[in-house]
Specification:
Chain lengths: 113, 114
């Protein structure tokens, strides 16, 4: 079993739709949770970072963490064609293993006009 | 402008050849990382370094080597022992290993085998 599972998609939605992207993880030692956006042939850029259960909002983006279920989500409201990219979840433990990220496979999202 | 630069953008390797990918950062970050990205597999850690002259193997270090002679530089050599080197290689850095800060990525180098 992989430490982090992410549905690779691809996911295609119309402009304005609400998008839900999800990851599950197996190790309860993971304490820090990130979402990266990666445009084609570019490096990933950090979108959201959180370390606690609950919701964190930034503009049209909401990151949700449920540690009891080992489940994290990223919601995109009013999706735009410019949101078309690959979205990667990344997780790392606390303690002495800090710094080493474990990534999901990435979900390819296309938002069409 | 502060950031992470990787060169070249594209690199071609012949059979049996060693090639070196460059990564430079001017963010004054302590830690640096190399990842490999293949379609459908996310990012996998090759090597990472917390301080100058020290580095650790990641999950897929076989066939790769690194050095960290300067804080701002972390070159990756893909050796002839790496039998499947075709991939997108990403360098990242973070301010302090152990803090809550996360990693910031360069633009990547695409390596292709001739």
């Amino acid at each position: 079993q992989k430490e982090v599972e992410q549905d690779p998609g691809p996911l295609s939605v119309p402009e304005g739709a609400i998008v839900s992207l999800n990851c599950t993880y197996s190790n309860s030692a993971f304490q820090y949770f990130m979402w990266y956006r990666q445009y084609s042939r570019k490096g990933p850029e950090l979108l959201m970072y959180t370390y606690s259960s609950g919701n964190k909002e930034d503009g049209r983006f909401t990151a949700q963490v449920d540690k009891s279920s080992k489940y994290i989500s990223l919601f995109i409201r009013d999706s735009q064609p410019s949101d078309s990219a690959t979205y990667l979840c990344a997780i790392r433990p606390g303690g002495t293993s800090y710094g080493k990220l474990t990534f999901g496979q990435g979900t390819i999202l296309t938002v069409h006009p | 402008d502060g950031g992470i630069t990787q060169s070249p953008k594209y690199l071609f390797r012949k059979e049996g050849q060693n090639v070196t990918l460059s990564c430079e950062q001017n963010l004054n970050h302590d830690a640096m990382y190399w990842y490999r990205q293949d379609p459908g597999q996310g990012l996998r850690l090759i090597y990472y370094s917390q301080i100058v002259n020290d580095f650790q193997k990641g999950d897929i270090a076989e066939g790769y080597s690194v050095s960290r002679e300067k804080k701002e530089s972390f070159p990756l050599t893909v050796t002839s022992a790496q039998k499947n080197p075709t991939a997108f290689y990403l360098c990242a850095s973070s301010p302090l290993l152990g803090a809550t800060e996360t990693q910031y990525f360069g633009p990547g180098t695409r390596l292709l085998v001739l």
